[in-house]
Input
Amino acid sequence: MKEYYLLSLKWSKDSHFVWWGPNNNGYTHDLNKAGVYTEETINSNLPYYSNTSTMPVPVELARKGHLQTVAVADSDNYRLFGIAEHLKTAKEY
Output
């Protein structure tokens, strides 16, 4: 059975698309965090999942688009990258 991401036409503005999160919960710009919905789920309530605000996009098609990988600036990556340690010895430029 085909799988889909749900593109929010309502919230997609500027230069990045917005996708529904998993389990009809929230939105994300990151396809890696987007929910994957089965064709069966979409067809079970087509007016909800496919309308002027929402468009199902096959996963394989979305993955062929122009994608961008972004490193999130959060505390986990701050520690992982060793930024605090770097700044202790880094010289001002």
Observations:
- The mean pLDDT is 91.
- The CA atoms of residues 5 and 93 lie 45 Å apart.
- The first strand starts at residue 3 and ends at 13.
- Helices lie at 39-44, 46-49, 59-62, 75-81, 83-89.
